[in-house]
Amino acid sequence: MDRNQFLHWLEQIYSTRDQEIDCEKLREFLPAYVDFEVTKSSQTPTGDRLELVAVHLAQCPDCAEEHAALFTVARMLADGNLPYAEKSLALFEEEPTPESEAVA
Amino acid sequence: MFPRSNQNWLRALQEPPGEAQAEALDELHDFLLRAVLVYLSQNRNELADWGRQAVRGLAEDLAQDALLEIRDNLNTFRGEAKFTTWACQIVINRAASELRRRRYSDFSLDSLRENEPAVFQSLAADKEKAEPEHVAERRNYLALLREIVETELSERQRAAITGVHWQGRSMEEVADALGITRNALYKLLHDARKSIRDQLLARHLTQGDILAAFEE
Fold this sequence. Notes:
The complex is a heterodimer. By secondary structure, chain A is mostly helical. Helix content of chain A is 68%, strand content 0%. In chain A, α2 (23-39) packs parallel to α4 (61-78) and α3 crosses α4 (61-78). By secondary structure, chain B is mostly helical. In chain B, 74% of the residues lie in helices and 0% in strands. Chain B has helices at residues 6-14, 19-42, 52-72, 83-103, 109-114, 116-125, 132-152, 155-166, 171-178, 182-202, 207-213. The longest helix of chain B has 24 residues, at 19-42. Classes of the chains: A mainly alpha, B mainly alpha. Chains A and B meet through α1, α2, α4 and α5 of A and α2, α3, α4, α6 and α8 of B.
């Protein structure tokens, strides 16, 4: 644990609430939370839920990671620029062809 | 881009097999594939030795598995979110799990226990830029935290804290090592945090007090 991890842990200890939602509940609330973040739509989740989700995300690295990924995609979709499969795949190297392996 | 309303998605997916359902399934599969590829490409440093065809295969598998899960769970969609956001969560969850499993390093519960003292030693030793009185304060706070962790928490809580908070492992990896679900691990850690917080507050120690000693 380095200094930053320690300070983060300390922050997590002191921001602990008596009642927090678990990962299953988070999973249930998250999509509407993300839609709200992306569109600020009128279908606002109740204030309680917003806070419960935010508290959980600050405490759970796995849920935070999935939240970030979901937000990215929902944002792209809302902006009409979710990349086509081939465009994302183009970021990966092509496999070596059998011929070049045979030469090697 | 995927302009169907929630109702339209549900109706089409729940149709008896036919053209309308097949079209909706194709569309949903296309969306899931594109969504999961955004995630995989953003994490491509973790797939450094993966070629394009291998990534395509992984993405297809994840999208296909998510599609089945979505079809099996349509009745749990309550319409609070956009259908695409709800569906996307399922494929992201699967992809994130997959990448985490690849990130797992070999470690055991025993190593979680043995690593405990070393964690605190390294922090106490980190005194290059600190004032001497801060160094003494740091040692005191670290000793106190260690004492709280050792006397107030269960062995499982200690192992959970070591893995997640001190070693920065994923919840899933530590949960697997402990033989529990991620959900149960969250509860275990939540109880542990509450105990530590209460012990610190009982000693009238605020976050600011401790932070002041660790300022650089």
